[in-house]
Amino acid sequence: MDEKPAVTRETVSQGRGSLILQFFRGFVSMRTGIFILLLVMAAAFIGTFIPPGREHKFLGDVYHTWCFRLLLGLLCVNILACSARRLPALWRSTTMPQASSSVKLDSLPHYQELKIESSVESVVITAATLLTQRGFRVQTDKDGAGPLLYADRGRWAPWGTLAVHLSILVITAGALYGNFYGFDRDIALPVGSSVEITGSQYPGVAQPFSLKLNTFTTQYYDDGSVSDWVSNITVEQNGTKVLSQEVKVNQPLDYNGIMVYQFSYGTTISTQVTDAQGHLIKEADVAERGGVESQGFVIRPVRFVPDFNPAQPMASASSELRNPHVLYIIYRDGREVDWGAAKLGEEIPLSKNKGHVTFTAAQPFSGLQIKHDPGVPVVWFGFILMTVGFFISLYTKRLRIWLTVAPGQGAVIVQAGGRGNRNLFDQVVEELNNQLVSDTASRRKI
Amino acid sequence: MAEYEAQLFNLAFFSYFAASCMYIGYLVMLNDKLALLGRIASIIGVGFNTLAIIARTMKAGHLPFANMYEFGMVLVWGLVIIHFVIEYQSKRKALGAFVLPLAFVLAGVFALFYQEARPLVPALKSNWLLIHVVMAVFAYGALAASCAIAATYFLKHRLEKNGDDGPLSAVLPELESLENMVNQLIALAMPFMTLLILTGAVWAEYAWGSYWRWDPKETWSLITWLVYAIYLHGRSVLGWRGNRAMTWAIVGFITVLFTFIGVNVLLPGLHSYAF
């Protein structure tokens, strides 16, 4: 302090530094964290009211905007900072003796004063015994600088709280990891055919293999409602069969961490378009409600009906291939020009002299989702951490008690201060009072 | 018995209505007999509710967890059971005048969504259904009770503000103890609400191939969770007490209701079979 403050750049930059520091302190405060939580909540709220598939021009799919991701990122930074800041105090309160810390008892959240006809020593012994019996960890003062006795219970509760906060970071990390190193693709696999799963299309697949769809069946309950969609799938590697499994909605196939889910189903319709001279000009396998374009026409096979009945064209009379038809619509310049039902192989004219369209075959397919998410184990670990943390945090009664005992006029005055569970504090102090009173009474009798 | 599942739930509904009237009558006339009648009517209500759950299980061939009506009847059952625990522990008969009307209204709402028992749709055929729904009953039941007690807080607060310390105010618990009850219920519910979301996520990973898709149901469950997370921070760190904390508790339960009922009705998504 003997140096005169030199008004130099240094002090100015110190001023700036402290401003940044102040901003940083403000940012990492719990209040900021809660404010970010509110913003996340508001964004999530808005997002649910944007109909899926028809994303808003400006908002888009809220949850995948950089704005929303930034919010989640800020939240993670805030959680990390708040947790780190709490850690030293948490460590101290768990491990270090508290008795000699200078605590002002009457400014603690819970406070009571007792007046007992007894001696300081016997009060301390009684209190220590009682608190130990009630499951408290008791420490008595060594140097006489502060309260005589410190006791606590449920010291793991704040560690549970910490675990919950860290679990959010773990889950976020797992989600990011899965996003970067995983893949997720939907394929339509016709019955009887195979698909190659290779590293070039599916990053992270070390040894290519193929999935073959043997059968696809829809199972029904007695009342006619759907019980399950079942794809019978064989995994082949280097031309040899590795495993065969039924894949259902709640029963995915897991091959070395590559998951195959039953996702959808339908029929693809082989469609041929010929010109007026009968030359084939277009051929495509089209999914139901899909479309194929040719010469300004859009041909849309709407639905495949295996057993067509003209009286009830929309419903198949059975699932047998007795009278296979395709219900179709043909558009030209965006307007419907023709619609109807065509038998497989039947030629449908495309207006005058424009050729024909023919639906040659129909094949059922199973819509499979092929996914690899290496982040899932990390996310699961985060889930466990969060659950355990919550139970420890909220199902543990935590209470810290500080006691001072001072000699007064003909009696000692016990001051009890506490932080934590109110009911437990009141209960313990009442028990202590009763115990001390009965001790005094029994001593008098003697 | 299976044929009478709907009638049994209607009987539970009327019993809860009678119990609500008795409990409210107790608050108005301060006659202990009415509170006793309220308790008897709610016990009868739970009896019918239990029978309705059993009958529905027999008729559907699975536990009644497959749609809003089925889950609703179990939720109301859970709420009234929680009410018995609270009444027994607090020894306060007045709380029934707030919890039972909520049970009665919820029973009425779910009865409106009645639908015939059906076998489980493919997406629900999983062992996760049981654990997922049990978590929901615990969590939502406790949160419903917390909302009813927060409402009690506001009545008591109003009476005190008007300087009314008459017999009505005397039968209501102290403001601080009402606040503590609300807080305890929320603290009790939070781990279960977390498990509700997490079991749903794990299940979705197996059934839908993704643990989180921002489906409206998922998003709203997250919003609800955030509301209560903010409440917990507010109470433990920012020192929220009184009106602010209790308002937040009521807002929380409104978001629960929206997650549970509103989303099914207004926002179609993967969960829409629950409607």
UniProtKB/TrEMBL annotation, chain B:
Protein's membrane topology: Multi-pass membrane protein
Main subcellular localisation: membrane
MF (Gene Ontology): heme binding
Record-annotated Cytochrome c assembly protein domain positions: 66-271
A matching Pfam family: Cytochrom_C_asm
Listed GO biological process terms: cytochrome complex assembly
Cross-referenced InterPro entries: Cyt_c_assembly, Cyt_c_biogenesis_CcsA, Cyt_c_biogenesis_CcsA/CcmC
Keyword set, alphabetical order: Cytochrome c-type biogenesis, Membrane, Transmembrane, Transmembrane helix
GO cellular component annotations of the record: plasma membrane
Record flagged with keyword Cell division: no
Protein name: Cytochrome c biogenesis protein CcsA
Organism: bioreactor metagenome
Lineage: unclassified sequences, metagenomes, ecological metagenomes
Gene transcribed to yield this protein: ccsA_6
